[in-house]
Amino acid sequence: MKRKAVSVLLCAAMAVSMLAGCGSSDSGTDTQSGSETSDTGTDESGETESDMQYVKDKGTLVVGITNFEPMDYQDENGEWIGFDADMARAFGESLGVEVEFVEIDWDNKILELDGKTIDCVWNGMTLTEDVTSAMECTDAYLQNAQVVVVPADVADQYQDEESLSDLSFAVEAGSAGEDEVSALGLNYTPVTAQADALMEVAAGTSDAAVIDLLMAAAMIGEGTSYSDLTYTISLNSEEYGVGFRKGSDLCAELNQFFADSYADGSLQECAEKYGVQAALIQE
């Protein structure tokens, strides 16, 4: 599939600010009292165990994703690839664990995380207030936007927010796109994934969709499966981050990994592989 390069900003100042907002946790055993951790993730003194140690002990980092090209999607052999998928595998390797990708209902991502069916949400996740209040989130590593997708032959009619009022939208439930159309008071139907929103527009069951700019650039337009669709206006600007359980010490570890990967060039190399143009932000 042809991919269009999209200019997004990768936050390089994470080496300085990588610990901001990231809580560290005590180990599973209190060395003074000798109390042991329970299956609930807390020891007898009520202190939280190390999330990193929990992942290392079981030997697997379970990553919650959706089908979201170019971040996480399957190749012809059914293997998960993409910018986020490749970086997640590299992070798992740095921890000495295997990485398992699990497709989740995006609207239930926090429940999945807290229930320990997954260990992180790493899927082009927008750092909204709801997300950052419920998860331990990394520093932003990409900038993005929510864009309006319509059939190309009517795109000239929908070039500003006022022109959208009579349209019916399909949006991923629990997504930043849903937040935007809801805030604008637009008529919409929630669907399971952003890919489903595109199918709704292609089938004519919805007039438009709101999806991530990165996905729009990779999946619609000339040379793609949705050559008759295009995107018009951006409804916002936003940042992507990775989410862990509250208090997880994996957050600071991933911030350091991002900073190291930027410094050694591997992050930029991965970005170029998936048609994402990296740019250094000067402080």
UniProtKB/TrEMBL annotation:
- Residue ranges annotated for the Solute-binding protein family 3/N-terminal domain, each copy included: 60-278
Region Disordered, residue ranges? 23-53
- One Pfam family assigned to this protein is SBP_bac_3
Q: What span is annotated as the signal peptide, if there is one?
A: 1-20
Q: Which ranges are annotated Low complexity under compositional bias?
A: 23-40
Q: Please note every region of biased composition (Acidic residues).
A: 41-50
Keywords assigned by UniProt? Answer: Signal
Provide the protein name.
Transporter substrate-binding domain-containing protein
Q: Which organism is it from?
A: Ruminococcus turbiniformis
